[in-house]
Amino acid sequence: MGKADRLERLDTRRVELEAEYAAALLAALETAAAGSWGLFDHQNDKAARARWQPVVTGLCDLGAEIDAMRETLGLEPFALHAEFEASRGPVSSSAPGEPKQARAWLDRLARRG
Questions:
Q1: C-alpha triplet 103, 107, 110: angle, nearest 5°
Q2: What is the total count of domains within the chain?
Q3: How far is C-alpha 103 from the geometric centre of its chain's CA atoms?
Q4: How far is CA 41 from CA 50, 93, 98, 110, in A?
Protein backbone atom coordinates (compact mmCIF):
# COMPACT_ATOMS: atom_id res chain seq x y z
CA MET A 1 0.00 0.00 0.00
CA GLY A 2 2.97 2.34 0.43
CA LYS A 3 3.36 3.10 -3.28
CA ALA A 4 -0.38 3.56 -3.77
CA ASP A 5 -0.48 5.97 -0.83
CA ARG A 6 2.47 7.95 -2.20
CA LEU A 7 0.82 8.19 -5.61
CA GLU A 8 -2.45 9.28 -4.07
CA ARG A 9 -0.68 12.01 -2.07
CA LEU A 10 1.21 13.06 -5.21
CA ASP A 11 -2.04 13.28 -7.17
CA THR A 12 -3.68 15.32 -4.41
CA ARG A 13 -0.71 17.69 -4.42
CA ARG A 14 -0.87 17.90 -8.23
CA VAL A 15 -4.50 18.99 -8.07
CA GLU A 16 -3.60 21.64 -5.47
CA LEU A 17 -0.73 22.96 -7.61
CA GLU A 18 -2.90 23.04 -10.72
CA ALA A 19 -5.43 25.16 -8.83
CA GLU A 20 -2.60 27.43 -7.63
CA TYR A 21 -1.31 27.72 -11.21
CA ALA A 22 -4.78 28.58 -12.54
CA ALA A 23 -5.25 31.26 -9.87
CA ALA A 24 -1.84 32.81 -10.61
CA LEU A 25 -2.51 32.75 -14.35
CA LEU A 26 -5.94 34.34 -13.87
CA ALA A 27 -4.43 37.13 -11.76
CA ALA A 28 -1.77 37.74 -14.41
CA LEU A 29 -4.36 37.73 -17.19
CA GLU A 30 -6.50 40.26 -15.30
CA THR A 31 -3.51 42.58 -15.01
CA ALA A 32 -2.63 42.13 -18.67
CA ALA A 33 -6.24 42.66 -19.76
CA ALA A 34 -6.24 45.93 -17.84
CA GLY A 35 -3.54 47.21 -20.19
CA SER A 36 -0.21 45.88 -18.95
CA TRP A 37 1.99 44.56 -21.75
CA GLY A 38 4.65 41.88 -21.32
CA LEU A 39 2.91 38.71 -20.09
CA PHE A 40 2.91 37.22 -23.57
CA ASP A 41 6.27 38.80 -24.52
CA HIS A 42 5.00 39.83 -27.96
CA GLN A 43 7.20 42.89 -28.18
CA ASN A 44 10.93 43.17 -27.72
CA ASP A 45 10.44 45.44 -24.70
CA LYS A 46 13.08 44.85 -22.02
CA ALA A 47 11.24 46.89 -19.38
CA ALA A 48 7.98 44.99 -19.87
CA ARG A 49 9.84 41.68 -19.92
CA ALA A 50 11.60 42.56 -16.67
CA ARG A 51 8.34 43.68 -15.05
CA TRP A 52 6.63 40.37 -15.89
CA GLN A 53 9.67 38.11 -15.40
CA PRO A 54 8.86 37.05 -11.80
CA VAL A 55 5.29 36.15 -12.75
CA VAL A 56 6.27 34.26 -15.89
CA THR A 57 9.11 32.46 -14.13
CA GLY A 58 6.77 31.45 -11.32
CA LEU A 59 4.21 30.10 -13.79
CA CYS A 60 6.87 28.22 -15.76
CA ASP A 61 8.45 26.73 -12.63
CA LEU A 62 5.06 25.66 -11.32
CA GLY A 63 4.12 24.27 -14.72
CA ALA A 64 7.33 22.22 -14.86
CA GLU A 65 6.68 20.87 -11.36
CA ILE A 66 3.14 19.90 -12.32
CA ASP A 67 4.34 18.25 -15.53
CA ALA A 68 6.89 16.20 -13.56
CA MET A 69 4.12 15.03 -11.22
CA ARG A 70 1.86 14.24 -14.16
CA GLU A 71 4.62 12.19 -15.79
CA THR A 72 5.13 10.21 -12.58
CA LEU A 73 1.39 9.59 -12.45
CA GLY A 74 1.23 8.58 -16.12
CA LEU A 75 -0.87 11.58 -17.10
CA GLU A 76 -0.68 13.88 -20.10
CA PRO A 77 1.29 17.12 -19.69
CA PHE A 78 -0.53 20.04 -18.06
CA ALA A 79 -2.53 21.47 -20.96
CA LEU A 80 -3.13 24.92 -19.45
CA HIS A 81 0.58 25.54 -19.05
CA ALA A 82 1.39 24.17 -22.51
CA GLU A 83 -1.22 26.51 -23.98
CA PHE A 84 0.23 29.47 -22.09
CA GLU A 85 3.76 28.66 -23.23
CA ALA A 86 2.59 28.34 -26.85
CA SER A 87 0.91 31.75 -26.70
CA ARG A 88 4.11 33.58 -25.72
CA GLY A 89 6.69 35.10 -28.04
CA PRO A 90 6.76 37.22 -31.17
CA VAL A 91 3.61 37.54 -33.29
CA SER A 92 2.72 39.24 -36.53
CA SER A 93 1.99 42.95 -36.49
CA SER A 94 -1.67 42.23 -37.27
CA ALA A 95 -2.14 40.02 -34.17
CA PRO A 96 -4.35 41.34 -31.37
CA GLY A 97 -2.53 43.24 -28.63
CA GLU A 98 -1.67 41.58 -25.35
CA PRO A 99 -4.57 43.17 -23.41
CA LYS A 100 -7.04 41.83 -26.00
CA GLN A 101 -5.33 38.44 -25.97
CA ALA A 102 -5.53 38.35 -22.17
CA ARG A 103 -9.24 39.24 -22.30
CA ALA A 104 -9.83 36.42 -24.81
CA TRP A 105 -8.01 34.02 -22.47
CA LEU A 106 -10.18 35.15 -19.54
CA ASP A 107 -13.34 34.69 -21.59
CA ARG A 108 -12.26 31.25 -22.75
CA LEU A 109 -11.31 30.15 -19.22
CA ALA A 110 -14.63 31.44 -17.86
CA ARG A 111 -16.50 29.32 -20.40
CA ARG A 112 -14.52 26.23 -19.34
CA GLY A 113 -15.78 26.81 -15.82
A1: 135
A2: 1
A3: 15
A4: 10, 13, 8, 23
